[in-house]
Amino acid sequence: MISSRELPNHADLQPYNHAVAGHDGTLSDPNGELFIKPCVQQEIKFYEEAFEKHPDFASLMPVYLGTLSLNSATDVESLEEQLPVIADHLSQGLKEEAVRAAKAAVAEAVAEDAAGQGEDVRWKPNKNRKIPTNQSVVLENTTYGFKKPNILDAKLGQRLWADDAPTEKRQRFDAISKVTTNGSHGFRIAGMRVYKGSDKPEELDSDSYRVYKKDYGRLQVNKDNVVGEIRKFIFNARAGIDEDLGQAIAQAFLDDLRRVAEVLSNAETRMYSASLLFTYEGDGEALRAAIVEAASFSESSERRKQDQVGDDKAIVMEEPVGKGTTLDAELVSGHIEGDLRVMEFLGDAVDGEDEDDDELSNLPRIYSLKLIDFAHAEWVPGQGPDENSLLGVRSLIEIFEELAR
């Protein structure tokens, strides 16, 4: 649920700076509560059908808020008509900038696409990473609410091209898959950001992140070192993520990966170049504080529940689609002990109708795992589950089982 806080004015807006893979042109406010991402109609259709007909699958996706269709006549009034759910929460400056920036990105991408067209033109990689489209999807940002979000984008599948891909694209993507972990494991690290991820200042950006771009997953990660490279994402003593805390986060991701596998095994889709986006609080001190606060909330909620119904069972918080996660009452005692179960607290999981809901929506985030990027995704009733994507999910399960031990 989008909060009612005032969002920034025109001068405060900036490109979304937590992206580790994907296309350019995404607009975000400084706090990253939502973003507007250029996309094709196929992706919009996939989102809409998921949230309308497939609630279990929709629970794996970022919260979908609507779409924008832009043309030369688009203005703030038409934006408000297209996005009635969130229009009241957007400042006038953000609305104006959303229209201006999206139009500019579309015009540039379309112009460059047209310039390259001709009778003998062949498919070529989109080096500017901009999509020639006049449509954008509006999503709630899964990294919002973290102090220092660590992010890993895992691109799923051995086959990365859709049925309508030209021959040149198929050949290029098959070559990438063959020499990367897409071929050996069914996924590839498409990008990664790790807070305090290096002892060398020159390897860190201005926010103290080590950023691993797409060439990292193509050229440096292979079937023999992939577990160790993902370990760099989870375990980071420089940022206060020690073995116990890292194992706890790995276990949390493992639980959600098993959930993803279950949902995909019961869904009839075909997704090419979709990704799993792993996010967790990368500042160890903030992560421990978030866990302690979550434990305190769980304990107080349980006491209130017991007062009301006399039930001494552990409280179970549920996401909108019914996914329940139990949170142990005693999580932190100087250091993490035992088999810690970490719970993700989602702002959209509540409707603000009672005291618990208000407190829950203000809790700091711990971790998040979401399925993203559906430009080449479709529903295929009668054709069974997407084994191409499931291969990558199952490989990730095996890796996180090892990291959680």
From TrEMBL:
Q: Which InterPro entries match?
A: IPK (IPR005522), IPK_sf (IPR038286)
User: Which BP terms from GO are recorded?
Assistant: inositol phosphate biosynthetic process; phosphatidylinositol phosphate biosynthetic process
Q: Which family does it belong to?
A: Belongs to the inositol phosphokinase (IPK) family.
GO CC annotation: what is one?
cytoplasm
The EC code for this enzyme is 2.7.-.-
Protein name, UniProt field:
Kinase
| Top EC class of this enzyme | transferase
Q: Which residues form a coiled coil?
A: none
Task: Name the Gene Ontology molecular function terms of this record.
Answer: inositol-1,4,5,6-tetrakisphosphate 3-kinase activity; inositol-1,4,5-trisphosphate 3-kinase activity
Listed A to Z, the keywords are: Kinase, Transferase
